[in-house]
Amino acid sequence: MTNVAFVALASGLIIGLGAGGACIGIGVMGGRYLEASARQPELMNVLQTKMFLMLGLIDAAFLIGVGLAMLFAFANPFVG
Question: What is the mean pLDDT of each run of 10 residues along the chain (80 residues)?
Answer without folding.
Answer: 83 93 95 95 94 94 92 76
